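Input record (Table S2, row 889):
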Amino acid sequence: AKFVYDFTEGNKDLKDLLGGKGANLAEMTNLGLPVPPGFTITTEACKVYLDSGSEPAALRAEVSAHLDALEQKMGKKLGQADDPLLVSVRSGAKFSMPGMMDTVLNIGLSDASVSGLAAQAGDERFAWDSYRRLIQMFGKTVLGVDGELFEEALEEAKKAKGVRVDIDLDAADLKNLVAHFKDVVSKETGRDFPQEPREQMDLAVRAVFDSWNTDRAKLYRRQERIPGDLGTAVNVCSMVFGNLGPDSGTGVAFTRDPASGQQGVYGDYLQNAQGEDVVAGIRNTVPLADLENIDKASYDELMQIMETLETHYKDLCDIEFTIERGKLWMLQTRVGKRTAGAAFRIATQLVDQGLIDEAEALQRVNGAQLAQLMFPRFDLGAKSEMIGRGIAASPGAAVGKAVFDSYTAVKWSRSGEKVILIRRETNPDDLNGMIAAEGILTSRGGKTSHAAVVARGMGKTCVCGAEELEVDTKSRKMTTPDGTVIEEGDVVSIDGSSGKVYAGQVPVVPSPVVEYFEGRMHAGADDADELVKAVHRIMAYADRVRRLRVRANADNAEDAARARRFGAQGIGLCRTEHMFLGERREMVERLILADTETDREAALSQLLPLQKADFIELFESMDGLPVTVRLLDPPLHEFLPDITELSVRVALAEARKDANENDLRLLQAVHKLHEQNPMLGLRGVRLGLVIPGLFAMQVRAIAEAAAERKNAKGDPRAEIMIPLVGTVQELEIVREEAEGVIAEVEKAHGVNLKLTLGTMIELPRAALTAGQIAESADFFSFGTNDLTQTVWGFSRDDVEASFFTAYLEKGIFGVSPFETIDKDGVGSLVRNAAAAGRATRPDLKLGVCGEHGGDPESVHFFHEAGLDYVSCSPFRIPVARLEAGRAAA
Ligand code: PEP
Ligand code: MG
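Output record (magnesium ion complex):
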């Protein structure tokens, strides 16, 4: 294998091998853009190193060859005493992991070459500053020295000199600091700072490989669902300097606004600064537009390059650049992260610009983003106390108690508190706290600071750079300009869409996207929100191309109506047990307690009209669309009082000698029905087979409701569904009885109801014998909740709270199988059962009604498995429609 690629050899499609940064540096190089020369060590080399503990044997020679070529091109050798070539060594995985992994700049500097650099640059101070930065970064990331030790030494030097900022240290001070730093390294590591340039480079490369497996990188990958075995590439790039004086600087830019999609000049610039200063948000930057006044030629060239990049990548790009004494250099580009709203707007803007087509536009957005846009926002009309304003870094409305460190954020959120993490600035060590918090507020740093970038990636609300707020993490408080103090535990509200920060709890209102889906806001209106217009167009593309139909899980007319407004094409699951609660619980109790047929029939005939009325409403709200009604599923004890409570009540009454007859009978029934494993017990079809008349009553209610709707000139399309079937025999018995009841009703009302009768496939045995079951079923609906429970042997009600965190941490799975379908296990049963069912009955209708029906990744799976529809809760319908479209496009 070839382990090293020159920037001239790669291209943007080689991300697997060269990582995102390396692939795009190569792409820019080949576009003729000003990229400092360099080369990329592949992810394959990293994988060999991570697997075996040492670099591949061929790597050293390959690196040497590429280094030779680089030295030739630059006309100087790495670390050459009189004119040193310096390089940066940067990580770059396939997926961007901001701030997660290591970078070392100024490799090649040493005691021997520092004066050569000074002479070449004509700047003694610059050379010593570069050298101290090298020792500091190398010491920390490569040699593992505690970074605080360097920070302290730097602070001391400033204090000794009586100055506040680094810039005020002169060459002599920095020279002393270098000596001090070298002492720190020797003392802490038992070895001297390496003076040999190639050794510096090799160690830095290895450190980048190692950084793939730091705890924070692992945590980030789990969060972002990035596979753990990809490895990182390493980019070795000749250094350019943004810290050579006022005609130098470094910055970041977006080709359009990552928060709104608007075209324009977006970015931050920092004069006379190097590398990570901007991204780390350590010093405050100026808006990119100001660069025009600082250095017009570079600004114009940058604008030109941004246009080239956008047209070339056909997407928003973000960029890191450096200006060295008036010469512009491109250090990085990639298709940039953006907010959910911007994703929709950019996708439609690019269609309008003719850069992409509708199918491509669908790939530029996703269901998770749409879900995010459906979150509520702050009520701007409500009374609120604004205490400050920062940069709107990641949208959303977050309310929570103020905490000032990650540890507290995690601790409080574990005990159920909502928290806002407030920091001066964040760094990768804050990741846990950021995950735990509702939102993040910082007082320093721009749109590209660590907090902003990471929060956007996580879809968390973030306001950054709220400078007038004085954050004091030591004494855990924040002070506003007018002296208001927010202490730990005080409630604050932050608006990531406007950057506003409020004391106390601000009320929230629905999002415009929800208002649009509800039909209360029209995309066609002249003053329609740009976001709503974009969502409307993208949804139209999705609906046009999708093959999967989308239904709702709904069991009352209100949910059904909302589902319909959201685009549902029917009901895929009406859980009838929800119709047995409230005051009807007593009737169910009577049914369970009945000892004689007369009693039982009396109880059933009391329930019948109520059920029927429910179904009439439902069929009316879904007129013309299919409604799948599932017969009673849960174990009966769920309708009875709690066993402990009732036992205590009866025991107390007995002690008082006034035990009530009904309670005694109830208690008996509760004992009789008590099961160790109710989810595996008397429920679903088993109930229907054991309690005479129960399913017949439900079927009659459905049939009569349908008949009444028909006679009222409605178009009811009921489908009757039997739960928890394990074998075709169960289904045959129920079907025979149901067909009898339906025939009776049809005759009595003089109508043909065209009712279909199908089953849920939610037990492994049902999936395995689907070919037989299809003999007796008009349709299958996969109940992936129970199927996941029974295939894995995981109690769906318990495991997520008990040991899933441990499983997720150990990487056994990246996401709960109750959330995203387990394709290899549960999914393979679904695929096989679908095929076997269709082999028996080619017109068998197939759907899914487990929670997975509204999960983006699972929707793609069901599309590929050839199902006819997915069914999910009303609020997830737009997401399912979008993902079904994306799967088909
Ligand atoms: C299922 O098991 O996936 C299902 C939809 O039924 P319920 O969640 O009601 O058990
Ligand atoms: Mg189920």
